[in-house]
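WARN no homologs supplied; continuing
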Amino acid sequence: WQGGMAIQGGVILGGIVGYLYTKRHGIDTWDFADIVAAPVVIMGQSIGRMANLLNGDAFGHPTGGAFGLLYPVGTLAYSTYGTQPLWPSEVWEGQIDIIIFVLLLLFRYCRKGKGQVFALYTILYSVSRFFLEYLRGDYGTLAFGLKSAQLTSLAVIIGGLAVFWWFGRQGLDPSPAAAAPPTHTGKKKQK
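OK structure emitted
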């Protein structure tokens, strides 16, 4: 058995549990998703890709050249491809996840609708995952020459774009500059 969709299924289940938790405790779900969930999840995904590298799973397919990662005996990558150099897909995904983390932090300081940071996370991660799957060698295609993670990514990209647009139309959060307290004008108080 080779498992399911791993992180994608985990994020979906985590989203459901997070929604139930925030509703039960009176926390605004989309504020929580924007401020905490999106940045924490993508950074966790990056750390997870480091673990994939150390564990020898979520590996790329053979490069066809003399460059690439070589995995030790006992790893799934070695069991699958032996001593062939493999694309470092999990390394690149970990690096891309850090870039997405930084972009999400920067986007938090732009004028945006509530929920758009989380929607942007789903879009950016799904776009990167879709293309990185072409380099992955740990499982085969499912339909239309695409892997299950690519099909899921396409659905999430489309849904994420729609949600991003919808949240943007619902109203903008004030920008950090607009929310800043008024500055001192130099006038003295009258007694």
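DSSP finds six helices and no strands in the chain.
OK
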